[in-house]
Design a protein that fits this description.
six-stranded mixed beta sheet; 6 strands; single chain; Rossmann fold
């Protein structure tokens, strides 16, 4: 299964989480600010933060260029200072492009300014890696 990971990071959290997941799964990693995602892909992990309850508009713009005929499935991993924000806008956008999106999503605690300093911590990053392994195993089953 041809799999890759793309991240969009404003604070560095998504880069940290994405790097750990890509390293653990031994898959290519792409920065949505600078890289073009190679297609076709069977599965694309998308890692991004939630800002003010929403997906980053720049990340959404980059995802809008993906083609459902070339990217079959996506798995979302998020970081959020609230610890529960989800990538609803990214999910809707990917689905509108014909890309299937796994219903489960891992949300990692992030921080904002001085709120929740120290997050995401190693346990949360490890949780993202476990989630990614399990999600990929389900897709391969």
């Amino acid at each position: 299964m041809r799999t890759a990971l793309a991240y969009y990071s404003v604070t560095g959290h998504s880069k940290k989480i994405g790097g750990a997941v890509a390293n653990a799964l031994q898959i290519p990693i792409y920065n949505l600010k600078t890289d073009t995602i190679p297609e076709p892909l069977d599965c694309l992990f998308v890692v991004g933060g939630i800002y003010g309850g929403k997906s980053d508009a720049h990340m959404l713009n980059q995802l809008s260029h993906l083609d459902g005929a070339a990217v079959r499935q996506a798995i979302l991993i998020s970081s959020s200072a609230s610890g529960f924000g989800r990538q609803d806008q990214a999910r809707a956008l990917l689905q509108s492009r014909g890309i299937q999106v796994l219903s489960d999503e891992y949300v990692c605690m992030g921080n904002f300014l001085i709120v929740r300093l120290g997050h995401p911590n190693q346990a949360e990053v490890d949780g993202a890696v476990r989630f990614a392994r399990q999600a990929l195993a389900r897709l391969n089953a």
